[in-house]
Amino acid sequence: MTAQIRARYSQIIIYYSFRKQILRLPTLVKIDKTKATQFNELFKQGKYPPEIIDSYSLVRELLDRVNDAISHSLATRQRKPYPTEIQDYLGINHKATDNSLVSYVLEYEETKRKQYSEGLFSMTSLKDYVSFRNTVIDYQTQLGRKLLIEDVNLDFIGKYYHFLTTPRINSKTKKFKSKGNLKGKTTKKRLDILKAFYNWLSLDKGLVRDSDKFAYKINKEFNVNKGNITTIVKNFALDKFDIEQLKTLIENPKLTNNQRLAAKLFLFICYSGVRYAELGEIKREHIKRYKGRYILEKKSKKTSRVFQVPLNQFSIDLLREHNFNLGIYSNTNLNTHLKKALLLDDYFSDIIEDYQLPKNQLITCHTGRRTFITRLLNEFKLPPSQVMRMSGHTQIATLSKYIYPSPDLFNTDLF
After folding, report:
1. At 165, is the secondary structure helix, strand, or coil?
2. 316 φ, ψ to 5°?
3. How far apart are CA 178 and CA 160, in angstroms?
4. In terms of Cα–Cα distance, which of 279, 283, 271, 264 is closest to 372?
5. CA dihedral 64, 65, 67, 72 (to 10 degrees)
6. pTM summary value
7. Mean pLDDT of residues grouped by 10 in the chain (415 residues)?
8. Handedness of CA 196, 201, 205, 210 (dihedral sign)
């Protein structure tokens, strides 16, 4: 058997058994223990509870790592692994016993997981530490050798930065966990964690010196800020031709069920403007009937402001089809299925001259929200105050980046 997601008492765990030995790996995701049975029924159906959808990518990432350990054992031992072998593979309850960099990164991540369980920081922050670990493992894969603690010096910063901002190319001999090609804000997160990790190596482990010089070099030479994200790509939105082609793509018989559903969810975001984090939170009670029309009325998770969006028939039909539960995929999986779907249509593979990239690389699920707001301001000429009531924004100035120079490109039914 492969590993499974289960609810046990008041938390979500990863469950695995082999020859009567059981692994119950805690994910540190807390739940109401009275809902454990209900959640387990959803897990059996391949669904994830919408109440804790924010934790899905973290839980799924841990599940995939356990299944990777099982696959590794099948390939190298020709049998499934014992639970202790999985723990060794993952570095769970890990204390570094050698001088390898990854060994200490795993121990550092373990300390952060414990801090998260104590409520010291958010799920989003914990995901950043997981991503940091993956980039270090990938960098080691790229070099083709084991990284050691002594490799982490002032010169390491520039090499690691270059690796973060370079696209990954998988091959038969090199498989990467991260995609690379990181931009401003995300690059800064990885460098900030590298800085904190080096400080931990210095203060808690006594393995390195001059942590102040290490931090100074990052702050002075590599402190990339949010404004460095490529403006054109960041502001990319679909036009009327893209929307119409997306509708055609959904009917393409070559799409898998996951790819078709991902394309439908993306179109729903284009029509409603909801953020990914809010997609799985939409419930039946959020849909109101007003003057013969359906309205999505919900509090924005990011700004805590209530927004109201008229829904068209496509959006209502999709909600009904899935029993008002659209929290079907993690953000990563939704984007993966969406991009695979876009690759099946040559229309989305054409290189866009202004971007020097094909549309299928520019589009993510957040492009749907950007498209929604851009159309409200440009095609429908709604005043910013009214757009804010639909988007959940609290500052009018935030909407300025959505002003589009060619309103002729917008001319499709929205609501």
Report:
1. coil
2. -65, -45
3. 13
4. 271
5. 140
6. 0.47
7. 86 88 82 90 88 81 87 88 82 62 88 72 73 91 89 91 88 83 85 91 84 84 49 68 93 94 96 91 92 90 87 95 92 90 90 75 89 86 87 77 52 52
8. negative
